[in-house]
Amino acid sequence: xxxxxxxxxxxxxxxxxDIVRRVMASLPDEAxxxxxxxLFKLFADATRVKILYCLLxxxxxxxxxxxxxxxxxxxxxxxLSVLRRGKLVAPRREGKTVFYALADDHVRxxxxxxxxxxxx
Length: 120
What we know:
Layout: H1 3-6, H2 17-26, H3 30-42, H4 46-57, E1 60-61, H5 62-69, H6 73-85, E2 89-94, E3 97-102, H7 105-118
Antiparallel strand pairs: 1-3, 2-3
Helix pairs in contact: 5-6
């Protein structure tokens, strides 16, 4: 075991039961944590993040996003479908055109705080 790895281990077993009890009481249920993990997986794809940032600026149709990102409409449609199933984007039909926007302010907050974190 390396010195670095060893420094993260306790020298003796000492469970702080009051801390463990308080944290356990505040943990979301397993299903909620799984859903949160799935949400973060949606942000793990650079193309999806680019699409979300485009939609942070303005609602757009598939053609607009494809042009902006220099990708095929098919590729953008596929990623929008994934984002829609994840409840991160919402469609709005205007005639034959479907415009996409961020689903809600939570998505705006996640994106804004994420970019702030990585640019600090």
